[in-house]
Structure formats: C-alpha cells, structure tokens
Amino acid sequence: MIPASDCLIPCWWGIDVGQTPWSQAKHSLGVFASEILDWRTISAEEPDGSHMISTYYVYYAVRGLPRGGGMAITTRDGIIDTLLVNTDSTPKGLSLSEVLGRYGRPSSVLVRTFRDRTPFGLPFLLVLLYQDRRFMARYEIEAVRVGDNIVACPADTPPAITIWGPHKTWSDEDLQTYLLGPDYYNPLIPLADSTDFTVDSLYEASEREGEALCLRSPSSIW
Predict the structure, then answer these.
(1) Residue 69 clears pLDDT 80, i.e. is over it
(2) Structural domain boundaries of the chain?
(3) Number of H helices, E strands in the chain
(4) Angle at 86 between CA 77 and CA 109, to 5 degrees
(5) Mutual angle of helices 199-209 and 96-103, in 10-degree steps
(6) From the CA atom positions of the chain, what is the Rg in Å?
(7) Any alpha helices (H) in the chain, and if so which ranges?
(8) What are phi and psi of 132, to 5 degrees?
(9) What does pTM read for this prediction?
C-alpha cells in the first residue's frame, strides 16, 4: 500500500529530492516495496564535472489495482536527484484543483491535444510546471470535440509527478523532449496561446469552480 506522508513537494513520501541519500531512501522504501530494481549506473560528464548516475525502479502494491504502482528514481553521486511517480500512486490529493490550491500559481502551464479523435481517443495533455518547487504535474485527460473546440475537464484525474534536484534546469527543448520524446511533431503550447485562460485566470477559475473546471482549446491550432 502507498505510505502516508505530510511532506510537500519536493518532498515525496519522506524523500527530499536533492537531499536524501539513496541508501536512506532504499531502506524506507523497502518497508512496503514489492521490488526495487537496480537498472543501471553510468558515468556522465556535466558542466561541473563527472557524476555517477544510477536509475532504480520501485514497485509496490496499491489497493484496488492488481498490477500495483511504481516510480522511477535517479540518483546523482548517491543522492536522490529525480523522482517520477506514475498516476497509479497519485489519485489522492493531487487533482488539478487540489494542486493549484496547495501549491499556488505555477510558473507555467502547457497544453497539447489533437484536432480530431485519434485511434486512441482524444488525449489532452495539461502540464503544470513549478520551477521554484522543482516539480511538474502532468495530467492526461480524455477530451471531447464540441463544435470548433476541444474540451477537457480534468475533474479528479490523477497526474504523473516529476520532481528534480536543485541543480537541474529545463530549457524549452528539454521540456518538450522529456514530455513528448525526441521525435515529437505536435509540441506543447503555452496555456495562454492555446486556451482562453492565462496562468492567473486558471488559478482563479479553479478556486471558484474546483473539479467542475473545464478547458477549451480551438481545434484549428492543432
């Protein structure tokens, strides 16, 4: 089962990303993890020198989900450096309205969708980036087309969460590639350029409407 924790991001389940040693995190995760997989360790040259980068996958039981949940952890010289939690582990307390209510206005919000329904539905990707708190929340919403608009209602959709250490910075290209892969052709667009919301008005609308909030994006821009 998922452990309870009152710490706020960039802390997650008692792990302070950028501060907690892997040896300490592994011990605390081992209490509930069904498997901790040591995937690989490489030496990476970075602007400040060479660092040992290790990647681990942690799997655990989640009540009501036969396949359970998981997260990916990367360490830098033995310190937790990035943490990616999938949506199976974030259903409680992290809906769009709850994240905005708890963490305030994001530094930026990005959107990506499609003009028409695809063989896989009509996905609407909404990304909240909190640079100061070093995390992003990624919501994958099933949208509908209404006239000339693509409409997405996040409601209680759980996000995937990525948290990173204090040395990490994101260029626009880094962010697009991380979220969409290196061969993307349909980039994420800033909220104000793709909907009738700005970051501030989204925050204010969320305060008023909560989980009833919906976003509309003109299909013509996609």
Answers:
(1) yes
(2) 1-88, 90-160+180-222
(3) 5, 14
(4) 90
(5) 110
(6) 18
(7) 22-29, 96-103, 172-180, 191-194, 199-209
(8) -65, -35
(9) 0.93
